[in-house]
Design a protein that fits this description.
Elements: H1 12-25, H2 38-45, H3 49-61, E1 65-68, E2 72-75, E3 80-83, H4 90-96, E4 102-113, E5 126-136, E6 139-149, H5 157-162, H6 165-173, E7 179-187, H7 191-196, E8 205-213, E9 219-227, E10 232-235
Parallel strand pairs: 3-10
Antiparallel strand pairs: 1-2, 4-5, 5-6, 6-9, 7-8, 8-9
């Protein structure tokens, strides 16, 4: 049991909030880690559920934790902004904002010949598929499924493990990304991905669907990023009025 100052001027719920904040700042509670349940906190601090809920509300209002219905309360993850006007890979966006992301390749299919009718990449030659996990401060912030056209170049697992997608295209496949198309929507991630992202089965993840092209308009890669919804924001700046309504499309 953690003792609170019950005779002081600071309300009990504020003392609890301060102690939880200290645990977050000192990394005793890591980003995206689940806080103890309401019952566990009432036992830990010897207070009522109302007092615990008031303390959690303070942290929620400050953006330090997020509450997920049916799952509990979690420490907020890193705040990441993806500029849509800049042609930049997901990994590079994290680095540009001062993060030190770690990646792990969890699936890898060596390049193989497929027909353009595959529906993933209008490929010239062999096509590579892999799934990569992105971590920041030991928390999984995104999972990417990539299908890449290798144009006859043999790309190894070791090369994919060591390089971001755009670096593989530029340095190994020798293809320059000239443009990219991105769509963003909320979806339920596959069950295995939801578990990695610490999402409930009914919780929604943010899906960024990106297709990259070379100067000839050939598709170089298509990547689906399943992203922690609370940590990610997309930013778009345009010169002149921004017609949002004209950009809305029906999703099947």
């Amino acid at each position: 049991m953690i003792r609170l100052n019950r005779d002081g001027h600071t309300a009990l719920y504020l003392q609890i909030a301060q102690k939880l904040l200290h645990d977050i700042e000192t990394k005793k509670l890591l980003p995206l880690e689940k806080l103890p349940s309401e019952y566990e906190l009432t036992q830990l601090f010897d207070v009522s559920r109302v007092t615990v809920r008031q303390a959690i509300r303070v942290l929620v209002d400050q953006g330090l934790v997020v509450s997920r219905q049916g799952k509990g309360v979690f420490v907020s993850g890193p705040k990441v902004n993806q500029e849509l006007k800049t042609l930049r890979g997901f990994y590079d966006s994290l680095v540009a904002q001062g993060y030190d992301p770690k990646t792990e390749l969890i699936e890898f299919e060596p390049p193989r010949d497929i027909m353009a009718a595959d529906g993933q990449v209008a490929a010239l030659g062999n096509v590579l598929r892999f799934t990569r996990v992105y971590r920041v401060d030991d928390a999984v912030v995104a999972i990417a499924q990539c299908t890449m056209s290798c144009f006859g170049v043999e790309v190894s697992r070791e090369q994919v493990e060591a390089n971001p997608v755009y670096a593989v295209l530029h340095d190994i496949v020798k293809r320059k990304v000239a443009s990219a198309s991105t769509s963003i929507l909320a979806v339920r991630a596959p069950s295995g991905f939801s578990e990695l992202l610490s999402l409930g089965e009914e919780a929604m993840s943010l899906l960024m669907d990106r297709t990259s092209f070379d100067e000839e308009g050939l598709i170089l890669e298509r990547t689906r990023f399943y992203i922690q919804p609370e940590i990610f924001a997309f930013q778009l700046e345009v010169s002149g009025p921004m017609q949002i309504s004209s950009s809305i499309r029906k999703v099947s």
